[in-house]
Amino acid sequence: MANEEIARIFYEIADLLDLEGVRFKPEAYRRAARTLEQFPSEVRSLKDPSAVRALPGIGEALSSKIEEYRSTGKVLYLERLREKWPPGLLEIMRLEGVGPKTTRRFHEELAIRDLADLKAALEAGKLDHLPGFKARKVELLRQALSHRPPGGASRSGGRLPLPEAQRIADELLASFRATKAPVDRVVYAGSLRRRREDVGDLDLLATTRGDPRAVMEAFCHLPPVREVRLSGETKTTVILDGGLQVDLRVVAPEAFGAAWVYFTGSKDHNIRLRTLAQQKGMKMNEYGLTRGEGRTDSPTEEAVYGALGLPFIPPELREDQGEFEAAAAGRLPRVVQPGDLKGELHIHVPASFGPEDLDPWVREARDLQLRFLGFVFRPEDLSASSTRLGEIRQRLPGRKGGVRILLALETSLSTGEKGLPDDPPDLWFVRPGGARKGGTTAPGPGASGRWPDVQVHPEEGPFPPGSPKDRLALELAVGPREVYLPPGARALAEGGALFLLSARPRLPEELRRLSLVAGVGARHWVCGDQVLNAREDPVGRRPA
DNA sequence: GCCGTTTTCGGCCCGACTGTTTTCAGTCG
Question: Which of A121, A243, A289, A369 could form a disulfide with A126 if both were Cys (CB 3.0 to 4.6 A apart)?
Answer without folding.
Answer: A121
